[in-house]
User: What shape does this take?
Amino acid sequence: MVRVTIWNEYCHEREDAAVRAVYPDGIHGAVAAALGGQEDVSVTTATLYDEAGNKNPDCGLPATLLEATDVLIWWGHVRHWDVDDAVAEQVQQAVLRGMGLIVLHSGHMSKPFMRLMGTSCTLTWREDGDMERLWVIDPAHPIAAGLDRYFDLPNEETYGEPFDIPTPDELVFIGWYEGGEVFRSGCCWRRGLGRVFYFQPGHETFPSYYDSRVQQVLRNAVRWAQPTARKAELGCPNVTKPTAKFDE
Ligand code: ZN
Assistant: This one.
C-alpha cells in the first residue's frame, strides 16, 4: 500500500469564486480524486488553512502524519512564506530519509522544494491561457507510462526558461507553449534516500487536474516516488570495528 498525503495551502479556492468554480472540492480534492480508485494507494489530504481561513496546527502536517506518508504531494502558491520553517525542515528531512515528494506547479517556490534544490527555483511566467504541448522526452521513464509522444492542455499558465534548478537527474517532459516559450515541465531528482518529482501543469484557474493525461502522470509519479529504502534518522555513525581483516 502506498500512503499518499496531498497537501494544499487552500487559499485561492476559498477566497476566489472563479477558482472555486473550477475546483469546488479544492485542488487537493481534485488530485485526490485523480489518485482514487486504486486498491494499493491510500490517499489523505492536508491543508495549510481550514475552511474558515484559520491556519491549521503544524501547517496541517504534524510529524505523525509525515511519518505515515510514503509520498507527499505539494501544491502552494501565495502562502509559501506562511509555512513554518520547522515544517519545511521536517519535510526536507523526511525526503532525505526516503519519503517521496511530488511538487506541483507554483510549488516551485515552496520552502521544502527550494531547500531540497538549493537554488532560487525562479522562472518566467505569463498568464494568458496559452495552449501547452507537453512533450514526452523520456518515453521509457515510468512516469511517462501509458502516454503518447505528447499531449496538449488547451489552457495553462505559461512557465518559461530559465528555470533555476539543479540539472535534473532525469527529464521526463518539456512543455512548449503557443507563445513560443519552452519549459522543463517534468523533472526528477534523488535527494538522500528520497525521490523528488516536479510537474508544472496545475494553475488554479485552469482545469488541468481533471485531464486524463495529467491524472495518468500523477498516478505514475506516485509509484515512481514511493520509498525503496527508508531510515528512521540521519546520522554519521562511528563504526568502531572494521568489517574485515586481511592478512598481508
Ligand atoms: Zn499558477
